[in-house]
Specification:
The complex is a heterodimer of chains A (493) and B (295). Chain A has 15 helices and 20 strands. Chain A has helices at residues 68-88, 91-107, 109-120, 124-145, 149-152, 173-186, 201-212, 227-235, 248-258, 283-295, 312-327, 347-362, 394-397, 413-421, 436-445, and strands at residues 31-32, 34-36, 39-41, 48-53, 58-64, 156-160, 163-167, 190-194, 220-222, 241-245, 264-268, 274-277, 307-311, 366-369, 384-387, 404-410, 428-432, 450-453, 472-473, 486-490. Chain A has a 7-stranded mixed β-sheet, sandwiched between helices. In chain A, strands 9-8-7-10-11-19 form a 6-stranded mixed β-sheet, with helices on both faces. The model of chain B has no long low-confidence stretch (mean pLDDT 95). Classes of the chains: A alpha/beta (493), B alpha/beta (295).
Amino acid sequence: MTIENYSQNTQADWTYDPAPQSVEHVNIHDSYELFIDGKFTASKSESYRDSINPATEKTLTKVAEAGVEDVDLAVDAARHAYEGPWSQMTASERGKFLFRIARMIQERSRELAIVESLDGGKPIRESRDVDIPLAAAHFFYYAGWADKLDYAFPGRQAQSVGVAAQIIPWNFPLLMAAWKIAPALATGNTLVLKPAETTPLTAMILADIIREADLPPGVVNIVTGDGDLGKQLVRHPGIDKIAFTGSTTVGKDIMRALAGKDKRFTLELGGKAANIIFADAAIDQAIEGIVNSIFFNQGHVCCAGSRLFVEESVAKEVTQKLRERMETLIVGDPLDKNTDIGAINSIDQLKRIQSYVEIGQQEGGELYQSSCILPDTGYWHAPTLFSNVSQSHRIVQEEIFGPVLAIQTFRTVDEVIEKANNTPYGLSGGVWTDKGAKIFKVTRNIRAGVIWANTFNKFDPSSPFGGYKESGMGREGGVEGLLPYLNLTTNTR
Amino acid sequence: MKLSETKVDQIGVQERVARLQSRSIKAESKKEALTLALSMIDLTTLEGRDSPNKVRQLCYKATHLHESFPGLPHVAAICVYAPMISTAKQALQDSKVKVAAVATAFPSGMTSLETKLDEVKQAAQDGADEIDMVISRGRFLSGDFDYVAEEISRVKEACGSAHLKVILETGELVTLDNVRTASDIAMAAGADFIKTSTGKIQPAATPEVTLVMMQAIQDFYRKHGRKVGLKPAGGISKSKQAIQYLVMLRETLGQDWLHPDLFRFGASSLANDILMQVVKQNTGIYQSTSYFSLD
């Protein structure tokens, strides 16, 4: 097949006018306090951190910074709630609270979606259609398990663990809060949650929802702050279980801190997933899969398919089609309903991505970026491809966490399996082929927690998620997602 | 000819369509899209009871869409059965509106190739600017792709200078893989346009089928450098649907195809719905349907 240079030419003539999401009914407070023992409480240190809109660099509001004393208060409140009302309550009553929270997330979904996009820079299409509905779905799913734990683990008695410290990242703020809170509560634990310092706002709305839902005070506490606060939580003696989602570097630090201590923990860390396109795949749909795997949420996705492997015989066609498709991606205002790629979450992350793009060029990678025009203010990065790279390049080995894709080619199934596994990570993967047998061969041999076939980045509360190797340990979601929050004993009845 | 090697994944197509349909088209871009859509309509009447008078009314409508609203474009073509060609040609002689005629034992295609070729030659002789043929779906489904290809290229020859639109009747082909294969066959055999449906079989045009045909056209253009047109027909009666098709067109085939030379809507009631929207966009109120002629 010969492939000519063929411009989509979509910039001329008929273009889309702005379709901004109205933000009228969203009320962002001037400041947000800590949520401890059922009340919004000022930080003892009285210090605040500005929360920035990454699309405009404007300050949205300020959020309290928790210190040592605040952590003690939050952990104490969680302990009291655990020993008091929460563990005494029947499981079906606990379930009702979760159902209530789920419904209230749905009721306030528009507000949550807008605030998520304002605070984190992700396109409203994603926060509206993915983040918020999935967060509600997660609460609904685990609400159902609350009074059915005996059926989840037949013959064994499921007992809660105690007080959990939960530390979540900035890429899916509300969704990660839901992943953490829902299973912890369904299994009868109480918790202290720390949202990421760049994206705390939807967690504060969630705190408001939890208060309105009349959850007993102290069952859920939310403290805001940066990595130091996370360190304090991890090392706090009053914590029984740690659930962390974030970078592998911090994950290793948590393991070191917990060595020799009797604390449960789960870690959901980085990734460098292989997305594999065979020549017999449905190419046009695979192109969409590639776009979805690396440009979803600006590439701020731990399971992003950041290493693309294309069978050599279709590599030219796939690369060409991908470039053309990238031209149609609309980069810009996260609150425009037509935006495909929003703002980079923070200036730090933008610099990190830019430095990797420089490294990629220095390493000899062939750079391609879409010709989109980036806004003057705010943090932005054009969708980027690197071809002519190999397994020894840093941009192929290290997690970039941005809209940057590295393309390699392969000739045989065994070769691509070897390359796919040649990474310290093992969180996710993708395989595209029309042949069922090939799907099974590849998915059985790749060491990763989730592998999608002919699709990518599909999430469902009933499906366990988690990594191999340096991508983490433990699973979230599904029946398996209950386990980290339970002590299972043999039922000797 | 062997089976097309290009695979289509149905779920992937559905997801892509859903995503494209979530585009929000507002303000000026909506007005432009509505005007563009009007200019792409093949205003159609294909009924056994069609009369010369009905066809004349349709032709008048084609060039005078809404008299109280000057400055609107004319439609691209009117689409009729072969016996109405001369009536239509006469009625449209002072305009740029094309006359398209369905042929080849439309809609079933159930007759011999010789009969079809005679019909096509006659239609071309009568002055049809465009011929809309149907493929032999029975032969296609039996795997006789060579026959289907041969038939199309013979019909193309018989068309002379008239443009050939090849109707795949996707509602009878059922799978998207079949739609892709039939598209590839029709283009290779010389189709100027590929068209989804006769409008006589349900489902007629769907966004999924249309997207697959767009991708086939794109691949064909890459390979051979010839731009083939596309005509979804049947089942598109609302402005909102029309705009969604244009969005799909823009983001798949690109700006070049956003032109009546390369994209048409086969529809009868779409025009009035668009007109209603045009009036709404300009005046802020929805007029009663009574204000729009039913021709």
